Predict the 3D structure of the following.
Amino acid sequence: MSGNSNGYAVEVERLAKHYPPDIRAVDDISFEIKRGIVFSMLGPNGAGKTTTVEILEGLRSPTSGKVSVMGENILKSCSKIRKKVGILPQDFEPFDLLKPVEAVTYWANLFSIDISRKEVNRRIGEVNLTDRKNVMAKKLSGGEKRKLGIAMALVNDPELLFLDEPTTGLDPKARRDIWRLIEDVGRRGSTVLLTTHYLDEAEKLSDDVAIMHKGKIIAQGTPEDLVAEYGKSTVIVLVGAGRKGLDEVRAFGVQATELDGDVLISCKTRAEMRSCFEKLASLEAPIRDIYTKRETLEDVFLNLIGQKMENGVLQE
Ligand SMILES: Nc1ncnc2c1ncn2[C@@H]1O[C@H](COP(=O)(O)OP(=O)(O)OP(=O)(O)O)[C@@H](O)[C@H]1O
Ligand SMILES: [Mg+2]
């Protein structure tokens, strides 16, 4: 795990972090992040996401394991790595009394970057804060504060950007704004390590996902691979078939449920789906449309953990 010409931004081998007396916050995990991709660590509260990310950032020391970031060993080359990464910490709060223009300038100076006012304005424009660039940070909305945090994290043009729960607690519009920024960063070729407990966010933004639970990675791959491997079924949706359609489908011997006037049929195998379509050919109930729907990461999560997750909390 040395040399910086390999294709990985991050390589983690058997990483563990224990807190006394017996908390295994990170419990023997291994993963790699290819350069130039958006990688998500997805998991509920307490899964070990922040602990892992802060070890990669050089802010916490591991109990054991090998970690390299941009081809450098984290224990040996921390200061070298710091210059190449950008960090948005969880629950980031900018300094209350600094305006965005001042905060970005200050942050650049910390990296010994001599930044011009024009460049500061460009960076603030990139995160769509131009209208708010002279407003004290304490008056910014939650979403605007996160955008400012991202502008600050990008000030050294990092090769690798860490975003620890950048959208938690934001309203849907602010979340989508942040998604667009993350997509922009990805398009520019930087690697992004995102942590989240929003399944839709991980599915939409990530090239690769690691699902973390109780300190372990319990599944990893592209969202499509995870759905193919851990999803159980494809659902046939008979739009507008209603109660009459449901009764008819059940009379064919096919299990189905009704949701908002649509009839849903789960098929575990292709053969099952084919046989279903054959039976449906003689359906008499009026239907407005038929389509099939693959399972999502949300179903994968439920299948793996046996519980749904809402706002990071596992539901009973
Ligand atoms: N400094 C610490 N001392 C003791 N235990 C800690 C410490 N930091 C974290 N933990 C514990 O380690 C586990 C993992 O915490 P971590 O913050 O990494 O989870 P997370 O996945 O980031 O959760 P969240 O979604 O709530 O941010 C939790 O059980 C937490 O209580
Ligand atoms: Mg966390």
Summary: The CA atoms of residues 197 and 290 lie 32 Å apart. Residues 19, 23, 25, 43, 45-51, 90, 197, 312 surround adenosine-5'-triphosphate (ligand 1) (CB under 6 Å). The two ends are 42 Å apart (CA to CA).
